């Protein structure tokens, strides 16, 4: 007799009369076990071992199967492996909104189309004027959307606070929050808010592409390098096409991001804005050895009164972004990083980035 089951815990004690072939499931904390009654035939054990490995490979190729079945657990108190327990909720380490995420291909098939989520604005090319206009439109649409979701009173209670601390060095709060996207639930908004030491001009310069090779490695340990392309201007706004490269993340492949970097004009209310918006352009096609990621990010800068104790200048910065480390756009081939892992860690990684940036601003020359 042979059973194959997936469970988050061993269904049998060590003294069980059943033989177990145990394989780790990819992207989960569950295990796949091939179970049979003990036998004197070693070949049958080897066959079951091979079956377990083969099944794990199948689940690696089709990870949604593991996601959809990982909550089915065998009743650990039963001596009969064919007796299944009740349906269990997803493990607590997986946020519920993302635990049952299906692949983009499945959702498109169910909807009767092959439509994939928007992952970068296509830039048609042509003359420099038309390209500049396309880049400008891409930036403005993202900027206005992020501004509305980050600051409008109707969205105030929709954000989920992931991390909120008081920085012991200056007594200022840092907050990392998440908001589900209305039409693309697999790629939420993330908002990072902090009071930074320095003037708006100093922080603006810190984010300038010209300084990335100096500043980014101290904020992002996976930063590999930056390649800048053509420069454009439209309605007084300067824009640069660029490609950022990231090192390998654990066992995952390297990532790269094609985007337009925009230095916006100050608003009438004194708020400055800048951003990087993902684009699809022949100037920076997908590169061999890299997974094309997606990252739209808009930064809002507001001048504050200096500190009362030492007169240090201060600025309030709000960074709103959406990130997909997989190549989920049209023509993409995925990337293997589950969204729940990103959602689970973005609070801590976002907080670490803000703290690192504050340290760098304080030690600037």
UniProtKB/TrEMBL annotation:
Give me the stretches of Basic and acidic residues compositional bias.
112-121
What name does UniProt use for this protein? START domain-containing protein
The segments labelled Disordered in the record are: 96-127
Q: Which organism is it from?
A: Corethron hystrix
Matches recorded under InterPro entries? START-like_dom_sf
Q: Which domain of life is it from?
A: Eukaryota
SUPFAM superfamilies given for it? Bet v1-like (SSF55961)
């Amino acid at each position: 007799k042979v059973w194959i089951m997936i469970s988050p815990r061993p269904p049998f004690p060590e003294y069980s009369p059943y033989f177990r072939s145990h394989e780790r499931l990819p992207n989960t904390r569950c295990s796949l076990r091939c179970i049979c009654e003990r036998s004197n035939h070693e070949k049958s054990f080897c066959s079951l071992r091979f079956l377990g490995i083969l099944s794990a490979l199948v689940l690696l190729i089709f990870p949604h199967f593991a996601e959809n079945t990982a909550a089915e657990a065998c009743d650990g108190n039963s001596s009969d492996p064919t007796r299944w327990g009740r349906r269990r909720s997803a493990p607590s380490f997986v946020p519920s909104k993302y635990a049952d995420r299906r692949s983009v291909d499945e959702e498109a098939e169910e909807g009767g189309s092959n439509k994939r989520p928007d992952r970068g604005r296509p830039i048609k090319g042509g003359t420099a004027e038309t390209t500049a206009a396309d880049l400008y439109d891409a930036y403005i649409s993202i900027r206005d959307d992020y501004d509305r979701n980050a600051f409008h009173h109707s969205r105030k209670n929709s954000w989920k606070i992931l991390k909120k601390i008081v920085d012991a060095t200056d007594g200022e709060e840092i907050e990392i929050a998440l908001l589900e996207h209305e039409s693309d639930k697999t790629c939420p908004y993330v908002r990072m808010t902090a009071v930074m030491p320095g003037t708006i001009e100093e922080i603006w310069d810190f984010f300038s592409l010209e300084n990335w090779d100096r500043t980014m490695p101290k904020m992002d340990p996976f930063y590999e390098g930056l390649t800048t392309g053509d420069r454009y201007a439209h309605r007084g706004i300067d824009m640069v096409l660029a490609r950022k490269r990231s090192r390998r993340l654990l066992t995952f492949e390297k990532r790269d991001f094609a985007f337009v970097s925009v230095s916006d004009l100050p608003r009438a209310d004194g708020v400055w804005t800048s951003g990087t918006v993902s684009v699809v352009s022949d100037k920076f096609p997908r590169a061999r050895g890299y997974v094309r990621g997606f990252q739209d990010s808009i930064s809002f800068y507001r001048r504050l009164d200096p500190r009362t104790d030492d007169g240090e200048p201060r600025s309030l910065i709000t960074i709103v972004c959406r990130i997909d480390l997989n190549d989920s756009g049209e023509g993409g081939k995925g990337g293997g990083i589950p969204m729940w892992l990103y959602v689970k860690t973005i609070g801590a990684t976002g907080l670490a980035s803000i703290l690192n940036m504050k340290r760098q601003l304080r030690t600037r020359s």
